[in-house]
Amino acid sequence: MLTTYDREVKLEDENKTIGIVLCQNKSEAVVEYTLPENNEQIFASKYKTVLPSKEELKLLINETK
Amino acid sequence: MTNKLQNTSFYKQAVDLLHSARQQVVRQVNLAMVHTYFEIGRMIVEEEQEGKDRAEYGKQLLDGLSKALTNEFGKGFSTTNIQQMRTFYLAYQNQQTLSANSKSAIQQTASAGFKLSWSHYLKLMRIDNENERKFYEIESVKNNWSVRELDRQYDSALYTRLVLSRDKEGIKKLSEKGLILEKPKDAIKDPYILEFIGLPEKSSYSENDLEQGIIDKLEHFLLELGTGFTFVARQKRISFDNKHFHIDLVFYNRILKCFVLIDLKIGELKHQDIGQMQMYVNYL
User: Fold this and answer.
1) Is the preceding omega at residue A36 within 30 degrees of 0, hence cis?
2) Which letter does DSSP use for residue B271 in this model?
């Protein structure tokens, strides 16, 4: 368990490291079934390389209602 | 030599003092203008109510005021500008009256606290949803966003993206306190918007291109990540059992007090990608 980055590894009074997998696309099922139930450390988020259009925004907003 | 060095820092101190004094003056002038425009907006709305039986009255009032102010002060008081002051008052009157019942209007608005520049409010007053507007206002103040940064955050639909992953209580909090980081989940967005890299949606690029794009526009990426993030490393190597792994990007969040590892995946997410991240996280 040797590493050249010892000094950057978490100190005792620091909180648990978080990991984000930034992906182009994902299935919620894959995420849900891979991660443990009480997971608070690992996240899978999509990324987009263009700003959302007005239509996309409307869709997003309607999804939440 | 020592003397010279001391002198340099001596001059620098004086320069810094003057810079910060000037900034303060600019800020004070800006705030006074914002408060004044709000009051002019109030005057217009109250005057319009007096003459509401005449349909043309509102238009005449704005044109007349524009002429009078232009005569007195020169540029900056077109009918459109005057109209904006009216819109500003209408958008913010409720927010302001909630904060104080005092009759002294200037005092009231001064204490009720406009904290941003007029250009910020020109942007904010066009946001119809009051909760959304409050969110962007609070975040602009907290993060010291320039108008350009505010524009970008709004265009990337930051508020909507945060709303998506929150319950009713959480959404309410966004418009009252802005974004508060209490647990890791609070710092996560889905999706992340990386328009600043300039990769067209349908083009083909490698994970490397994406990573290089982020590094080239690190300032933009930090704005997108949000409050408290600082850059630590790219392609950070970790090793165990004589095997080497490279984590694409490593950040640290000062508020959450933890490392944040980011791995980039082009295409569909596989369960192995999540497994690998779990290994990294456990390791650090």
Assistant:
1) no
2) H
Residue B105: inside a domain, yes or no? yes
Q: Count CA atoms closer than 13 A to B117's CA, side-chain side.
A: 14
Cα–Cα distance list, B58 to B54, B71, B75 (Å): 8, 20, 22
C-alpha B104/C-alpha B123 separation (Å) is 27
Give the A window 5-24 contacts with B, CB below 8 Å. Answer: 5, 8-10, 13-24
Residue B164 is part of which domain span? 116-180
Residues whose CB falls within 8 Å of the CB of residue B283, separated by 6 or more in sequence, listed in order: B238, B240
DSSP bridge partners of B239: B244
Count of domains observed in chain B? 3
- Residue B51 sits in the same domain as residue B69: yes
Domain end residue (candidates: B114, B145, B165): B114
Better-scored residue on pLDDT, B219 or B7? B219
Radius of gyration of chain B (CA): 25
- Does pLDDT of B248 surpass 80? yes
Contact criterion met (CB < 8 Å) for B274 and A16: no
Contacts of B192 in chain A (CB under 8 A): 22, 45-48
- The backbone torsions φ and ψ at residue B60, rounded to the nearest 5 degrees and listed phi first, read -60, -40
Does some domain include residue B188? no
User: Nearest CA to A19 among A41, A39, A45, A47?
Assistant: A41
Strand partners, B260: A18, B251
Question: What is the pLDDT at residue A64?
Answer: 55
User: Among B155, B180, B205, where does a domain finish?
Assistant: B180
Q: Are residues B204 and B235 in the same domain?
A: yes
B269 touches chain A (CB under 8 A): yes
Answer yes or no: do B261 and A51 touch at CB < 8 A. Answer: no
User: Any chain B CB within 8 A of the CB of A47?
Assistant: yes
* Mean pLDDT, range B224-248, rounded to an integer: 91
How many residue pairs from chains A and B have C-beta atoms closer than 8 A?
A: 167
Same domain for B33 and B101, yes or no, is yes
